[in-house]
Predict the 3D structure of the following.
Amino acid sequence: MFLSKIHIPWTQAKNPYQFHQALWRLFPGHEEADRDFLFRVEQQQTGVGAQVLMQSPLQPQSTEQSPILLAAPREFALNIPNNQRLRFRLRANPIKTIKDNSKGTVEKKGKTFTKTVRVPLLHEEQQQAWLERKLQAFAQLETLIVQPEPVLYFRKAKEGRSGKIQPVLFDGIFTVTDAEAFKKAIVQGIGPAKAFGCGLLSVARA
């Protein structure tokens, strides 16, 4: 896996579509592949651009013609053992899924189900409980700081719908209890809205 620091100029960073296109261009020849990288915007400044941390199985590449600044990617191995104590950071989109009769029904395998919608968890105790459920497969949470962040609005033109997500920044310390499950969480990310910069679990030795 590779961890990279990226600067995206404001001309691309201010437009969500161009922002994602800029990230995809770091993987020439793979633009049509399923997204297998995770990222988190560390800082964004109007008129300047966005500082992005990205994790990817492929090494990103930039060209002299590209306005994107790519710091030398650092390769790392996923060899964290059980009982390792780690500091972590995660920007996530804590949600719950509920049935919504107003959305109608859907047929699956001959059965009829009420359609569901995702609802953001807005209270800190709910957000912490959501994180603990996500971590319980591979870690024991020790300390946690929960920081709500500004709402992100989006529009999916192809689907003709718009919406919003309520990201939350989690910082804390946990101890790894299942190294294989932990490795899977690092690779796959945690929770929904990964296309909007959520899900990247960053760790360092505590």
